[in-house]
Design a protein that fits this description.
RNA-binding; alpha+beta; three-stranded antiparallel beta sheet; Helix Hairpins; 418 residues; 13 helices; 16 strands; 2 domains
Amino acid sequence: MLDRKLLRKDPQKVAEAANAKNEKINMDTWVVADSSRRTVMLEIEDLRNQRNTLSKAVSLKKRSGENADYEVAKSRETGLRLTTLEDKVSEIDKSLAEMEMSFPNIPDPDVPVGGEENNVVLRSWGEIPVFNFKPKPHWELMEDVFQPEAAGRIAGSNFILFRGWAAKLQRNLISWMLDYHTQSGMEEIWAPFVAKAESMTATAQLPKMEDDMYKIGRDNLYLIPTGEVPITNLYRDQLLEEADLPVRLCGYTPCFRREAGSYGKDNRGLNRVHQFEKVEMVRLEHPERSEEAHQEILDHAAGMLELLGIPYRILLLASGDLSFAAAKCYDIETWSAGQEKWLEVSSISNFRDFQARRGNMRYRPSGGGKPKFIHTLNGSGLALPRLIISLVENGQQEDGSIKLPPVLAERMGTEVIR
RNA sequence: GGAGAGGUGGCCGAGCUGGUUUAAGGCGUACGCCUGCUAAGCGUAUGUAGGGGUAACUCUACCGAGGGUUCGAAUCCCUCCUUCUCCGCCA
């Protein structure tokens, strides 16, 4: 949600920002509705004042046994007029709120304008592996342990099932990543894997992503599409002290995505599935420090890939590729040797105060004074299926065996998977 | 799933036989006083949002959410959400 003051002061800026994100919004309608709301509110407040005064008079007169019929009649009259105006305002409020919930966050000034093609590669790390044989895609390397047909029988197409070493590898990766985060001072969270509409609205999956989420209609719950939802909502409607900031959290969750309309596009194997596992990092930060924090989270996430020895590159997303709620976002992509392409394994975003406004997440300044909105950030650290793709495809050897990086060899009890 | 009890300002907590409560009191916090130092004590201030005024100040709304009754609702009624206790069911 954007600051109403900003909407009034610079509607043009909001409209341009939405345009840069390819979101269609009707700013003019908002401006008209907002101004008529204020006109009506003026009258309402005046009438309420009159009614309060009359009520007080009724109270005093009755107390002293006087007749208050005149005041009661007058007050009733005022009340009738009020009802009409209040109905009008609540109607306007409803449409204002609806519009405001659909206004996307404004990209930071340093975000390139344009679509995907304007994403900027900021830096890369590691050497793209060269093989003296033709490297295989992961679905061939993992034939015995990755069984989409089985998952399809159980849950439907585009769900995945791991068995044997793949299942163990995923479990160990999750565990290793969480240890990596907690060693740097993050608190580990185990949160619900479902969330209600208010939570989804606070982090801004709703209203826009409604069709991309699984919904349990009977209980009015959604399966979470990312750990960002429950972990950020841990602090919804909370007031923190300035000294509590930053709050640094991490946690494992599955992520459920309907991926409506994305069939047939890069969805072979583990590339794009309905349920995947992810370790998420969430940070609540002081507004003045969120830019710095964004870099820290990015470097921290990239550090994992260096320990795993996986080549990666970092993109600064252009406005058209930014999510609805983000002001700025870095993607980390790892190399997939078998498919010869880059895969997004992490998306690290700064939402500034956008989610905090929607979820009413504030802190009280240490010198006293009015509560202010915090800034929220999050980043994958990391998404499992694509990480496994890169590990397996990049580590493959001519005989089909897979060489593991030392940090995993230790946990898996072997240096090579055969 | 059944029965019962709650949800009040940063926190605790009174009010809940409708009208001097536009929410008492306490804690916490800030400033000041006092005090060899510290602690204690004393005084003052201190919810959020929106509107008006150069300013002192003032108006309006908010007591889980939404509806209703009433001249007037934290207070009465209805629906929903949520917490706790007991019972049932169950990993």
